[in-house]
Hints:
A: mainly beta, six-stranded mixed β-sheet, B: seven-stranded mixed β-sheet, four-stranded antiparallel β-sheet, 52% strand, globular
Amino acid sequence: GQNIDQPTEMTATEGAIVQINCTYQTSGFNGLFWYQQHAGEAPTFLSYNVLDGLEEKGRFSSFLSRSKGYSYLLLKELQMKDSASYLCAVRDQEGYQKVTFGTGTKLQVIP
Amino acid sequence: GAVVSQHPSRVICKSGTSVKIECRSLDFQATTMFWYRQFPKKSLMLMATSNEGSKATYEQGVEKDKFLINHASLTLSTLTVTSAHPEDSSFYICSARVDRGLGEKLFFGSGTQLSVL
């Protein structure tokens, strides 16, 4: 089975840094994704990790530890437009490599 | 990047009718597409994996006869909600996985908001 946990909500201040954690217990592992989703819209891809370590892409970075079943998304220099839900998703190795999503973390950026 | 087109974006229908949602990969071939359902303020729930030329693989608890999936070509998958009821009202999103090159990503359609009266 698949179990992916994220905090439900977070609040952070404009210009600050926020870290969104994700832990997972899955029957297989073939990569972890982070997606951003604004209300009423489809998710958009942010990052992909398959090896341990930190992947940096502009203001966004993502970290993975496969041994700990843990990842985080780091957002720097927060902007108001970063207010959205952030979805952690894991791709397994079963069948057609389906991707299972976590419950998502709703981030609110305040002035 | 790859583009996935989903249509319609919004549909309102009467209870008991059927609704078809189309998901097209516009500039790449997708042997595998995924259908998700999302309730308000909830995350995406995988409903089924659609495979070109074969039967879809449904997740536990998803009724095959209720949610018919057809993946007749490498660029088109359809989801038909049969005999829709108000509890089927939801946001449905498709995604496609590219077989090579961009395989690390899922490309999502824009979603379909279904409202059943």
